Amino acid sequence: MKILFITSNRLGDAVISTGVLRALQARYPSALFTVVCGPVAAGLFEPDPRCERVITMEKRRHDRHWLDLWRECVRTRWFMVIDLRGSLLSLTLRTRRRLIVRGGRRDGRKIEQLGQALGRRQTPMPRVWVSDEQDASARVLLPDGKWLALGPTANWDGKIWPPERFVALAEGLRAQGLRPVLFYGPGEAEKERARPVLDALPDALDLGGNRALGEVAALLRRCAFFVGNDSGLMHLAAAAGTPTLGLFGPSRMSEYAPSGQNAFAISAPGPEGEAALTDLPASDVLNVARAILDGKAEAFRT
């Protein structure tokens, strides 16, 4: 029994979709899954033992990446095709059943939208997969301790809380015994965005860069707390079960707040979609962070 699962190119949306994949795996315990996603999200699914294959879809001119994907999939007779991209490709494949989620903005959280579109009564919470090797590596890189994970980068500058406020937050949480460790994505642009925080916190561990997503998830699990901008890393931290505080400005917290058992969010003042993270004081985030650590932040739980 083979199931094709087409999910997002972007890491954050791909993490959100893992709850749907887990629900399908529970419903069809003998099925093997082929996952289609973008290159940045491929490492999210590779450690999954139920994932027979990961197909990375790199964009090409004139949408030729969809033709490439059709060639990869057309010879297989699928038991089910789940397409979270709403593509026409799903209508051309041989399958007993297909579930296609159309795009477009809707009200409510993205994770709830997916659950409703697929007929789930309960919201399918995200999860992460970690190999034994990745878990062992994380234990070496991040020994036992009270680690404060910081995610000071994002895919565009408007979603980035000022670096000096991440520094102030880290200094303010030292009283709780938390030592900072920085995470960010691959590439020089990501490291340059994180550099002001790294330079200002010389005792912080630098665990950013080109790491497998399973290893990043294993590292995040070893942290006592995560604070970061609205990003794929924020969603990964929440899915890993790390207490997570997401920081929102011009992006929509009502749709993209982190999801998990210990997920929280705070938004800059102002209308949603127009608020500026420069208007979110470090003192406000520090107060919410302390409340989360003390178990008194239900108002900020997502």
3D structure, described in words:
The structure is a single chain. With 302 residues, the protein is α/β, with parallel strands linked by helices. It has 2 domains: 2-117, Rossmann fold, CATH 3.40.50; 138-300, Glycogen Phosphorylase B (Rossmann fold, 3-Layer(aba) Sandwich), CATH 3.40.50.2000. It is built from 11 helices and 11 strands. It has helices at residues 11-27, 42-45, 64-73, 110-117, 132-141, 163-172, 188-200, 213-221, 232-239, 253-256, 282-293; strands at residues 2-6, 32-37, 51-56, 78-83, 95-100, 147-151, 179-182, 205-206, 225-229, 244-248, 263-267. The strands form 2 sheets. Strands 8-7-6-9-10-11 form a 6-stranded parallel sheet, with helices on both faces. Strands 3-2-1-4-5 form a 5-stranded parallel sheet, with helices on one face. Helix 2 links the parallel strand 2 and strand 3 (51-56). Helix 1 packs parallel to helix 4, helix 1 (11-27) packs parallel to helix 9 and helix 6 (163-172) crosses helix 7. The longest helix is centred in the first third of the chain and has 17 residues, at 11-27. The model has no long low-confidence stretch (mean pLDDT 94).
Specify the overall morphology.
Answer: globular
Number of strands: 11
In the CATH hierarchy, the third-tier topology of the largest domain is known as Rossmann fold
CATH class of the largest domain: Alpha Beta
Provide the low-confidence segments as ranges: none
Give a quick account of the main beta sheet: strands, pairing sense, barrel closure: 6 strands, parallel
Instruction: Please indicate the percent range of residues in DSSP E strands (runs of 2 or more).
Output: 15-25%
Distance between the termini: 36 Å
Query: What structural category characterises the helix and strand content?
Result: alpha/beta
Total DSSP helices: 11
Q: Give the second-level CATH assignment, the architecture of the largest domain.
A: 3-Layer(aba) Sandwich
Total domain units: 2
